[in-house]
Design brief:
The chain is built from 5 helices and no strands. The protein is an all-alpha fold.
Amino acid sequence: MEDLLAQQPADPMTAAVFDALRRRRERDAIAAQEEISNEGNNLDDVEEEQPEGVGSDPGVADILRRLYDEVAALRTRNQILADALGACAMCWGEIADCPMCRGRGSPGGRTPIEREFAKYVSPAVERRRVRRADEKSTRMPPESSNVLPVEEPVSLK
């Protein structure tokens, strides 16, 4: 989709549609970032966003409330991991026209936040290092006495 939107079509009508799509994606990205930045997840705001009639069904309202809570928790987790890896939390460097990083926010695109890196990345790196060292030490190199001689292939002529 990004590659398609990056093109400049010759047809003026198609160009206008592409331009509108680009502006919409930018507005959506900015709105998503503002939601991430907004620490007050107010349930009153959730009720305002619900379709008409949903508030009258407590089961649906409960499901929606739990979904909004889950999305908020996942956004927070995404932000923390992006900070730990030095990445853009909005696109992870995968959107060329991202309003936050302009496509340069892949992991390592900025300096990671040390506290988050130490908490989330360092333990995984250490575990991998230990596992590799263990695997290396358990491999036994073949000894010359245990190696069978290589025989020439038999010709079936």
